[in-house]
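Researcher: Quick sanity check before group meeting.
Model: Go ahead. Protein one:
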Amino acid sequence: MKLHELSPAEGSKKSVKRIGRGHGSGWGKTSGKGHKGQKARSGKGMRVGFEGGQMPLQRRIPKRGFNNIFAKKVVAINVGTLNKFEDGAVVDIAALVEKGIVKNSFDSVKILSNGTITKKLTVKASAFSEGAKAKIEAAGGKVEVV
């Protein structure tokens, strides 16, 4: 097969609708735009959500709350979740993402003390609760703040 022998799949190419070419075509006279009005004019583009001058829906409904765009997204992980790792493993952010415990869209990771840990791990995270620190060290592991 050569480049000039290629052709598109059957039915994938549609012929262009030629409007304004006489009333016999079905797209003559007003060319599918109806009679007069704002939508019949050239350059008729109206912005998304425009309601003809009526107060738009996104401005009519009440607004609630506040979204702080500077807030840091902290992912909380319980100590019991760390049992998924092998004994003696180094648990850092990359390892947590690799195991699927956290997704990659966050600013920091904090380890909380919920659950029990049975394995000796070296845990590297942004923050630890006092209880989590105690449980990891009691199991024979190490805690490192990154």
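Researcher: Fine. The other one?
Model: Protein two, sequence then structure:
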Amino acid sequence: MTLRDKKSEALFQFAQYDAAAAEKSGYSNYSYWRSTLSVFLHNRAAVALLIVLALLLLFTFVQPYLPGQYDANVINNHPETGRQLSNLPPSLTTVKVTVPEGTLLFGAPYDEDWYYVTNVMDSIDRRQNMTITEYGEEFCHIEFEDISGWVLTEYLRLPEDPQNVPYEAMSNYKVDVYMEPVDVTNDGNSLYVSADSVRPVEGEEGMVETVGEADLRILPSIHAFWFGTNNIGQDLWSRVWSGTRTSLFIGFAVALTEALVGIFMGVIWGYVRKLDRLMTEIYNVLDNIPTTIVLILIAYILHPSVPTLIFAMCLTGWLGMSRFVRNQIVIIRDRDYNLASRCLGTGTFRIIFRNLLPYLVSVIMLRMALAIPGAIGNEVFLTYIGLGIPVSIPSLGNLVNEGRQLITSPSLRYQLIFPAIVLSVVTISFYIIGNAFADAADPKNHV
């Protein structure tokens, strides 16, 4: 070897060969699911709705275990009169009125923690003349026979100049006379105050005096009816979340059943050529029967219940999924890798699960996402026509059906508004999330 060759050899160095690195260089680092997730996360509206939907679903299961929750099916009665607490408007508190320190009230212990109190001294029948000694926009001080106290101004027939006292006035209705100018009643019933907010008045049996400002409540409880109550006194807040839980269970059960049956039938239909004609005829027969007729007949024949509703929806609901899967299988069943698998003697089910189904996962998930609001919509429809779940089982369909009957009463419309809002959020969220996932799963949108 010449000196020149030795110098050339010193200038160059052979690169080390790595078989794993060489193999890796022949493939792309592209991942379909990673790319799908990346595209989906760029859709902020869909991600936000997914978070809202997840929190709502979680809350429907957590809500019954939170403190101060009323049972969804329990009829709440007034503890003093036993009457149903019907159609109470929505409120964030049970406080009816707050009175200042030193307010005198008639009161007696309800239990260890509460007193029931009132300041009604007496009542005066309608169309009775009384003397107005002091006028106020809300209360007037009156004297009637041996009664001296305060009555609500709105119940009195007053002259054009009511400020010029004293004068005679007549009551339009039967009126309660209060010790002080504050209404300490709840539709004629006593209010409730915590025992540590009052003290007995010495020498006056049955009289108590407030210690500091005192909150007088419609019930001996600090737990309010946030969504109000329905016409028989059930807590609408608990019923809405219990109904959401029921409707979501129906939606998920129907979507899962339709997916399992639809995928199995669709794969067999599309891959096994000998069954194609038979299953096509079966599909044509079943698909020509209106889904609404099937739902009505099954719900009418069988005993109304959640399983009945799920069975009625699943009876023909799988047809759409099976047709869609069949069409996709027909497109890819004769591609080279499937032909190679058959030539190598690979079993039919292995080809189906290893070669065919992975290409359909994204679109199957999309159809399942869209099947859930569809099932909830069918449940609402069947309940609307009187063939849905029994009233004893809260569901969004039952709540919407009950609320729609009160739409003409402005003070009771809340019984439709709250379940309708939850129903809208659930259905719209599933539709938007499903479509966003479909766009994300399309390889054309991948970078």
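Researcher: One line on it for the slide.
Model: Residues 236-271 form the longest helix (36 residues).
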